[in-house]
Amino acid sequence: MPQEYTPASGDFAEALATDLPEGRLRPVEARYLEERRGRLTGSGGTLALPRSAEEVALILSRAHEARVAVVPYGGGTGLVGGGIGPGDPLILSLEKMDGVRSVYPTENVLVAEAGAILADVQAAAVAEGRLFGLSLASEGSARIGGLLATNAGGLNVLRYGTARAQCLGLEVVTADGRIWHGLTRLWKDNTGYDLRDLFIGSEGTLGIITAAALKLAPRPAASGTALLSVPSPEAALELLGRLRARVGEGVSGFELISRAGWDFLTETGMAGQQPLDPMPDWMVLIELGLSEGQEPAAALEALFAEAAEAGLSDDGVIAQSAAQADALWSLRETIPEANRAIGAIASHDIALPLSAIPEFHRQGLEAMEAIAPLRVNAFGHLGDGNLHWNVFPPKGEDRGAYDGVRAQVTRAVHDLVAALGGSISAEHGIGRFKVDDLERYADPVKLALMRSVKDALDPRGILNPGAVLRAR
Amino acid sequence: MPQEYTPASGDFAEALATDLPEGRLRPVEARYLEERRGRLTGSGGTLALPRSAEEVALILSRAHEARVAVVPYGGGTGLVGGGIGPGDPLILSLEKMDGVRSVYPTENVLVAEAGAILADVQAAAVAEGRLFGLSLASEGSARIGGLLATNAGGLNVLRYGTARAQCLGLEVVTADGRIWHGLTRLWKDNTGYDLRDLFIGSEGTLGIITAAALKLAPRPAASGTALLSVPSPEAALELLGRLRARVGEGVSGFELISRAGWDFLTETGMAGQQPLDPMPDWMVLIELGLSEGQEPAAALEALFAEAAEAGLSDDGVIAQSAAQADALWSLRETIPEANRAIGAIASHDIALPLSAIPEFHRQGLEAMEAIAPLRVNAFGHLGDGNLHWNVFPPKGEDRGAYDGVRAQVTRAVHDLVAALGGSISAEHGIGRFKVDDLERYADPVKLALMRSVKDALDPRGILNPGAVLRAR
Questions:
Q1: What is the 3-state secondary structure (H, E, C) of B173-194?
Q2: Which domain does A290 fall in, by range?
């Protein structure tokens, strides 16, 4: 039987409040308890809003002592229920610690507090002539602490990596309220175990990230955007290989879009101008960021000529202005919104070995067809092997009628992913929604090692219980 | 009082041998017990040469059961005594598991066994038109398992990262003999804790890496090499910023060389042709690897023109042939050899925040002068903030006479590194030589967390005892 947690509200909160400066604890508002797609509702009555690592340490040491569950809350943009916990936990938000502490342009380093909003970090980098490489749809509200805790991905992973790859150092408060001062600005450091990467991606279950030293990159001198038709996902991968041979690391984004994506945009009235006529079954959206002396438009034209000759593309548009580039990106970025409007039966954030993607898609469609005449909208970060492979009811039907097959759909998709050596969570994490799947598909030794690490770093199990690993 | 280990030789080895195929255990030869610079001599009588992960698992399960210490041995090229243990441990070498299992060129992935030699991995990548980005002086004997266990760095970290950044998946045998099948070829995977990066850099103290899935990169279409004078390390950093503005990620190497490096080469008769006249106090060796349509020589000429105008360089040579490029690189790569011939009092593998490097070097020289009229040869991977800052006796004197100040020298250097927010081990690791220093300089919370992780994953302390963390 699981051990009980002490409620955060009541005696515990009252005692804690007397030792914190005023205003650090308050009754929680509904928005901290609502999963953004309404799939989970949290509970709990107390919200903690610390303003320093020391305050976080005090809060955690008390929670540890009393065995109060602590659910860390970032920008509320997570997609796997990681920030929504049951019971009467203390909701811990670092939103008052939202500063960019310093920018070191000659070092290409920026130090931010965990509550800093991604868009603000990006802007602080740009103000110093640099670039912070993390970019995703929710960048206006996602916070650095949550982005690191979930090892967020997004649109430029191909070039700059996930959140993990963009972090040099961390300040972390442990489950029992100690502060690890690991906020180094070092590009190399081989002094002991890699605790940084252990905390990154642990979804608040091993410690609370309070600040981070982040990598910046030089800003590309010139950028270019193109949308090219491709006959198949295989052809798209071949095209990526040829593009990289031309411009090396200059490929910032390489997004796969299917005909279904466009159809959904038109169906929901969200489509802008039609970029290609006819719209092909598959397209890739390419973003280049090149150096001085390189011509992105010329590189894209040469690529298209080569692709056309090789039968890899028969239509395309190369943006001739920033507005055209924005329009092409808007097409890609509006797809998730159209998906929500239509209503997916099930969404899958999967990764595959690159060469297994075409096979996965073929077999996946067959598996769906065997269940019902379902529609699939596959799109995403092809260069990373990461597809958002979302399943919808037939046109005109409501997803409500398909509630009964949701589990079957996801099971079929994830079974296939596992069989092909893929991942059931490429960039969203495990949270609370995928705990069962993790138990089903993960290597048992990995699960046992994870449990050992959890028990070692959070022996009383107070940190985000039920996320990543089952609470016990 | 530390708990005793069971000797590997004798009863334990005899029992183990009967359960392993023939030839897996044999008396150890001297070379497995000798630290390459003679600073440490190991002991032990039994060498294990398994040929599969399953055999490694059997060996470890028995060692765990009996509490036999296991010292993993890679290519014997480590610099911190990580592969040399006291007592009668089982020496575990994966040299018989040295195959490149598969190359996936369209995925830019290569899977190798832990005993594979780096040069062989590089060659396997080249054979498929790809590049494996790890490159270092000992690549002819260093093995993948050891390179990952120590998170090795080397010459191309600026572009491709350390060993950690070039690994996608691992197969690992745990201390108690379970196999974690984590050999994925996925570029994104957010399913649970980052065990991969926990094992990488743990120097064989948390588990035994038996195979790895490694990232490959496209081969640059054209390369260029130049040696430019700079007035100071500050100027070198400024030059790097300007170079990156020109060619972005196209900078593969950016090595700082001091006048002392050249003097040591001439003093030891190892110098080739003098590249600049007069030889300046500071130089940078630049390696570019650019894409199709880019001209490395032109980029380097433009950089030099800009640098000359800005007072950042007043002399330089741009290689006009592969032979000239080799000669410039040979200058850089022969410096460690010249250092060994002259005989350092103390060597330091340090990293600093980039902007602290000039200040460190100034204060470091002052600190050395206060001890004795010592000579300093500072060189290394400037772009990573990683200097090899080695201290030598005055010209004509033998280091033997300075044994008495070695500890004082290293203490002064490391104190300064710590004060400036740096690392006392940038790329070599902790091994056995730097355990005291780690205890002195590391954040105490970090040390405590490391100990918790060690106890969780290796509860009987059999894996490489005394490396990274003190044996107990």
A1: EECCCCEEEECCCCCCCCCCCC
A2: 222-341
pLDDT in tens, A400-427: 999 999 999 999 999 999 999 999 999 9
Residue in B closest to A166 by C-alpha: B165
- Local structure of residue B29 (DSSP, 8 states): P
Cβ burial, residue B128 (10 Å; 0-12/13-18/19+):
middle
Q: What is the pLDDT of residues B33-53, one digit of tens each?
A: 988 777 888 887 899 999 999
- Residue where a domain terminates, one of A192, A218, A244: A218
Phi and psi dihedrals of A429, rounded to 5? Answer: 95, -170
Contacts of B254 (CB under 8 A, 6+ apart): B158, B236, B240, B243, B284, B285, B286, B287, B381, B382, B383
**Contact check, Cβ <8 Å, A189/B423:** yes
Tokens of B374: 């010592």
Angle, helices B322-342 vs B259-267, to 10°: value is 80
Q: Do B455 and A456 touch (CB under 8 A)?
A: yes
Is the ipTM higher than 0.90? The answer is: yes
Residues B206, B211, B216, B219: is their CA dihedral positive or negative? positive
Question: How many domains are there within chain B?
Answer: 3
Taking residue B267's Cβ as centre, other Cβ atoms within 10 Å add up to 15
Residues 6+ apart with CB under 8 A from B432: B40, B80, B81, B82, B84, B85, B466, B467
Which residues in chain B touch residue A292, judged by CB atoms under 8 angstroms apart? 245-247
Q: Which residues face B68 on adjacent strands?
A: B6
The percent of chain B in helix, strand and coil, each rounded to the nearest 5, is 40, 20, 40
Task: Write the pLDDT tens digit of every residue in B113-167.
Answer: 999 999 999 999 999 999 999 999 899 999 999 999 999 999 999 999 999 999 9
Rounded Cα–Cα distance for residues B328 and B274 (Å) = 10
pLDDT higher than threshold 60 for residue B2: no
Using the 3D structure, point to which of A218, A236, A259 is the last residue of a domain.
A218
- Looking at the complex, report in whole angstroms how far the Cα of residue B237 sits from the nearest Cα belonging to chain A: 8
Name every chain A residue with its beta carbon within 8 A of the beta carbon of B421: 184-186
Q: In this structure, are A364 and A380 located in the same domain?
A: yes
Residues in B closer than 8 angstroms to A457, CB to CB, are 449, 452-453
Q: What CATH number does the domain containing A311 carry?
A: 3.30.70.2190
